[in-house]
Amino acid sequence: MKIPEKIKMGGHTITVTIRRLDQCEVDGTIGVFGYFDCEKLEIHVDSDSPPSLQWETFIHEIIEAACFFTETALPHPIIQSFGLLISQAITNAEA
Ligand SMILES: [Zn+2]
Asked: What is the pTM of this model?
């Protein structure tokens, strides 16, 4: 599925970019597939990842954004699991 350039969440616009990521520019973590910048309201996805991983990362970062807006501190393995499950549910959905 095509990753959109912008999404809306709770009345806020989140910009999505797909580009080569050397590190997370929020906390400096190296080797990330993507990240959500809550101060700039941006999702960044690594362009060097395979398409399925880019899509799953995009969904993962949407969940990270939802946690930010709802002040919900989910354990990261739960966010990871939800990202995998929701990305597959949407990808394999039938009209
Ligand atoms: Zn995460």
From this structure: 0.92
